[in-house]
Amino acid sequence: MEDPVDISYYIGAEDIESLKTLDVPFDNQVVSIDLQEELLDDPSDLIQLLTEQSSPKKYWIIIASAYAKIGKVEQLMKFIKAALGLAYFDNNDRITFESFVIWLHLQNVNLGIDKEHSLNLARQGISKLTFKIQNDRDTRPLNSISNLLCSAVLNLYDSNNDHANDIAEQILKINSTNAFALLVKAQSLLNKSKNYAVALKLFQQVLILNPMMKPDPRLGIGLCFWFLKDEKIAIQSWERSLELDPTNVKLRIFLNLAKFHHTFTNSLSDEEFLDNYKSCLQELSKIQKSSINDSTVMLTLAAHYFAKGDYDTVQKIIQKIVTSATGSDNIIKFSISSSISTYESNVLSQCATWLGRIEFNKSDFTQSSKYFQEAIKLNDNDIVAKLGLGQSQYNRGSLEEAIITFEKILNSNVNCLEANYSLGVLYSKQDSIKKKELAILVLERYIRLSTNRGLSSTKEPVATNAYLILSGLYENKGDMNQALNYLSKVVEARKHVDQDAPLEVYNNIGVFNFMKQNYTSASENFQLAVDKLQGAEFKSPDGDLLIDLPQDLKTTLTFNLARTKEISDQDEALTIYESLSQECPNYFSAKLRILFLNCISDKKTKQEIKDEIDELLQLNASDLEIRSFYGWFIKNFAKKVHLLPDADTTLQKETLTEYDSHDCYALISLANIYCIMARDTKGAEEKKKKYYLRSIELFTKVISLDPKNVYAAQGLAITFIENKQANKGLDILRKIRDSLNDISVYLNLGHVLCELKNFGKAIENYELALARYTDGNDAKILSFLGRAWYLRGISELNLLYLKQALEYAEKAVEASKATSKAALLYNVSFIQFQIADFITKQDVSQRNIEEIEEAITGLKAGIDTLNKLSTDEDDRHLPYPANYLKTRASLGSTTLLDSLSKALEETKESIAEIEDKIEKAKQLRQAEEEERMREEEEKMRIIREKEQEMAKQRLILQEQAQIWPKKADQTRLSASAARNNKKKKGGAKGKRGKGKKKNIIEDSDEEDDKNITDESDAETNGNGKRKAEEQTGGRKKKKPLSSEFINDSEEDLDELFEGDEE
């Protein structure tokens, strides 16, 4: 059996039934009153029944509450007034009834019944009741808390959230489990700080304390979870609350709005969206019938009718809401009462926003601005109104005001997608470079926010216009890679919604790829654009069909496609150009490309091409494109068609004076001519300087007309460099490098850096040009690298650098496809001569035999090369006259080769001497080492002998140490025996005894002397002094004995001399 889902789940089915009836004691009986069916329109009978029985307060309150639940307010007021007039109720009971009336007024405010009047009555009632409670010490705490709660709720209606929170805190100090006070605190937190996490905990605490609390805390729990982005649990909370109270209209509204949200954000198909949207509207219609004046319901309906374009119905709905909130039907200027709540102010703000949107759609941007401003006054957090105001300001031409409005939005809502997008678009329309940089910053932030929007929801689709604007901004900055990247994202974004990008996007992608020399990709994109043109129709903003536009676009796209074919298939390109010329005879661009291809392919003679150009020029003398091409033709082929040397100058001056004084190509051509004239002027420095200054003026004029003309900038840089202002030229070339993707920039940078003797950087630029723009076998660039390495080697006196120069010069010869390689061969020979000369000037200690031999081989090869070049029959391509080459070869074969051979011999001799010295030094060192070893061995031998001798001495001492104790013992025994004999002979004559005594002493001395070293014995026995001294009564001092036996010897001597002392 399933658990019940209504209130009986918490209090049981029996208690549910008991709540429907009231048992009132009557004359020892019980009268049961059905609180749902038996409450009469006239409560007089119930009043009489309760009055006669003097029924306690609780019966009156229960019946009054039942009247309140069924909406019979008049009967309720009559019933409570009767209770207040009864004498048997005390002051506390009357306070309870008065508090009940205040709660009734607050309920009417909540239900929207005469809000203003009900709020005033509630304020008056609370004020009177507060005065009574403060002046009556016997007031029950329950009544005091009830009045405080009324005051807290009233403060919530008045948007005094801080005061309401203070009252709730005051009550919670008295009773920390007061569920209603917790609800007030949670609601005040939601209204003021939007602290959803803390408010959620409070609502959950109320739910634990009282699961059947009215109002239901589950409603607040759902709101907190919704704003914490956990929509699933929010909906579950509201659904559970609705199960417990199916009549709660607010819950039904919340669930309906949640379903609308799900429909708009998670519908996977149009069919699913329509089904869900219809279901939402049906539910909304049911809610509207049960709650006609609910502003949330009416605003939702207004949104629906606005989407349908039924603006009249929207205005009627808005007027109804405004009248209900303000009491006025003036929707042009809202009459704001000071007593309206924050909620009502927000509702009115939305009303003003909808009216502003209506006027915006009607293109009345002035009136829409007024409505949006009114909405912002009512609710400063109304983002939609602020966005609408910014859009209105822009559409009425107030661009600066619109920018300020969107900037204010971002200051407080930096993650607002619409504000970021709108502000980025507006910034991009400004002329300021700083504003354009801000446009890039803001639009890229908009894209990041769109792709990262939400955790579980799908990504917000990015407006393709944002990609297009960013591409244009990066193009203006000269960053073609980023420009191309954003155009590619347009194609990807369109594919995500199963749509294709416009053909203009494919054309632009093709152009960028062409500029990056990705010709295959460019051709593919141009072909895609041409294919998309088939069957396409174009209309003007007014809806008119543009008949000629498809053909015009086809001509342009076909021309672009042919330009890419020039690289891979010139014949196909010619075919396309000829086809275009037939379709559009006046399309001179195609005709000029045909002439250009003929010039470089030799399919026609140069005279025939000149005749065709002259014909074009006669028909269209003012066409600057034709004149520019003619100038290029004269510059390259003037001699072949027998034109005067100054033909190019004449043409460009004619263009500037008679057709367009601001033609950039003519100005650049003329500037180049002056630069060449200055370069060719020899000796006359003033004249040369004048030509350079004139060239600089012309290049500067082009840059003033077209600040992004990198060709003019590069020409200016070259002119500065040739005019001995290399640093200025270098600065310009470095700036151009970031804008112009052309090999000439890197080559010019290499040239100027070589002039400035910054060879390392020059080599880097040459190598970049070689790697990035060629296949690595460009003879010209390899020659430049050889020259740079040669100059570096000479400057830094480094043979390795000269060898590197020779290597590049040889590679240039191998890579050259020219019919004559005389100049390149001369370069190789020249470096070989320089290497030979460099080695001859080297110090002998720095030379290497292998390097000299290589140099000799190279020099001989160089001499052979010069001899061959000097005997070449076709001497037109020789870098120098044949006689000079012969002289140089002769010099090499005599002087230089001899010097190199002599250097080789000197080096060999030097090396031999060095090796001989090294060998002698080695021998000397070896002899010294052997002598040292002998000395060491001798020292070791002496040490070993000493150690052996000391070992022998130690052995002797050890033996003596073992013998001496035995002798000492014998001496003591002899002395003891002598004393004993003396005592026995004590009666003898003194003189004789004295003589005997001396004999004993002498014997004793003789025995002791035997214990002394050999030296003592020798000394005593040698001269006999000891015996003589004893005979004369003297005593010789004894030498010290070994420390191991000193003490024993002294004791023995003491014993021996005891008789003398006596």
Characterization of the model:
With 1062 residues, this protein is mainly alpha-helical. Among the domains are: 293-411, Tetratricopeptide repeat domain (Serine Threonine Protein Phosphatase 5, Tetratricopeptide repeat, Alpha Horseshoe); 414-501, Serine Threonine Protein Phosphatase 5, Tetratricopeptide repeat (Alpha Horseshoe), CATH 1.25.40; 515-603, Serine Threonine Protein Phosphatase 5, Tetratricopeptide repeat (Alpha Horseshoe); 662-740, Serine Threonine Protein Phosphatase 5, Tetratricopeptide repeat (Alpha Horseshoe), CATH 1.25.40. It has 48 helices and 2 strands. It has a two-stranded antiparallel sheet. A hairpin with a 2-residue loop joins β1 and β2 (29-34). It is flat and about 155 Å long. The N and C termini lie far apart (138 Å). The relative contact order is 0.02. Mean pLDDT is 82; it is low at 1-18 and 987-1062. It comes from Candida viswanathii. Residues 1002-1018, 1047-1062 have a biased composition (Acidic residues). GO terms for molecular function: RNA polymerase II complex binding. Pfam families: TPR_16, TPR_8. Residues 965-1062 are annotated as: Disordered.
Spell out the blueprint of helices and strands.
Layout: H1 8-11, H2 13-20, E1 21-26, E2 29-34, H3 44-52, H4 57-69, H5 73-84, H6 91-111, H7 115-135, H8 141-157, H9 161-174, H10 179-192, H11 196-209, H12 217-227, H13 231-244, H14 249-266, H15 270-290, H16 295-308, H17 311-326, H18 342-361, H19 365-378, H20 383-395, H21 399-412, H22 417-428, H23 433-451, H24 464-477, H25 480-496, H26 503-515, H27 519-532, H28 549-568, H29 570-583, H30 588-601, H31 606-619, H32 624-637, H33 647-659, H34 664-680, H35 685-705, H36 710-722, H37 726-737, H38 743-755, H39 759-773, H40 779-796, H41 799-815, H42 822-840, H43 849-870, H44 882-984, H45 990-1010, H46 1014-1023, H47 1025-1031, H48 1046-1061
Antiparallel strand pairs: 1-2
